[in-house]
Amino acid sequence: MSIYPEKIENEKQLEELLSRPSAEVIDMFSRLDGDIMFLGVSGKIGQTLSLMAKRACNEAGNKKRIIGVSLFDNKEQQKKFEKDGIETIHGDLLDTKFLKSLPPVRNIFFLAGMKFGSIDNLGMTWAINSYLPALVAENFPGSKIVAFSTGCVYPLVPIESGGSLETDNPVAIGEYAQSCLGRERMFEYGSIKNKTEVTLIRLNYSVEMRYGVLVDIAVKVINNKPVDLAMGYFNVIWQGDVNNFVLRSLEHAKSPAKVLNITGVETLSVREVALEFGKLFGVKPDLVNKEADTALLSNSEQAFSLFGRPTVPISQVIKWIAHWLKEDKALLGKPTHFEVRDGKY
User: Fold this and answer.
1) What does the pLDDT average to over 100-124?
2) Mind listing the pLDDT tens digit for each residue in 304-343?
3) Helix (H, G, I), strand (E, B) or coil at 69
4) Sign (positive/negative) of CA torsion 259, 262, 267, 273?
5) CA distance 54 to 60
6) Is pLDDT at 37 greater than 50 in this prediction?
7) φ and ψ at 28, to 5 degrees?
8) Per-residue pLDDT band at 118 (split at 50, 70, 90)
9) What's the CA gap between 43 and 151, in Å, rounded?
10) Any idea where the domains of the chain sit in the sequence?
11) What contacts 161, CB < 8 A, 6 or more positions away?
12) Could you give the angle at the alpha carbon of 203 between the alpha carbons of 9 and 237, nearest 5°?
């Protein structure tokens, strides 16, 4: 019998699933030394990632400070974290005085980043994605750091390749990807200079009911909008599995920094996914253009060898998303722009 529901009915149920710690996460938190701080916690992943850490600590009986740092969109968002038992600190991480005022905790998860609209504000994109990591690496030399990066630092690869490996040389296409590679290089520099233990997470892509590549495709299908097949293939992974993997990656932080791809098992077809959503919605998708013979793909076998395979099959996530959209439930309104092939996000 599946441990997952047939349908996800509301955001409370969704967030419980996304923040549910695995037995392995709970075991890790039972022996974890030091408190935990999430920098840039108010983004798409921070809420459930920090809550999973809190739940794991509670279930392990290991009391820790779980601290979330962000500008926060509003007071209500900040209160939501605090209601979940996450301490919050409001401030601008680019303010060096504020950054230096933060407690020197042992374990840090760096979530800050800019993608959406990056082409329209390149200075800020580089500041958040490259300058800020340099500041963080310099400010927390004695911490263990897990930093989110992206599979966008890889080049487009042949569909049959199985995806880019961590040992492949990055070929960052466009300034967004270049700034993310800058992020990695700044953490790598700090890791070598200060012997800081770091894990760099090349994520590609996380999905849940409210955002992600699958939602982008589903929204176009249900609204009879054209689905572009030019970037015809992709990888995704359920965000609950991402959260479990990312938290556990803390134990694999090293100096020099360790790079880890995190994505799903399958190479998915935009065409086939759109057709599946078409069946679930009872409509015929409007498919345009033709699949290229390359795509942005990552190989996550190294992560699977450390953490096991994802627990939620993408076929289940597709059904969940179809139900969510048919019920007209809330979306984050942050498209991934996965179909972009020139790096201009």
Assistant:
1) 89
2) 999 999 999 999 999 999 999 999 999 998 888 888 888 7
3) strand
4) negative
5) 10
6) yes
7) -60, -45
8) low
9) 18
10) 11-207+236-264+296-310
11) 297
12) 35
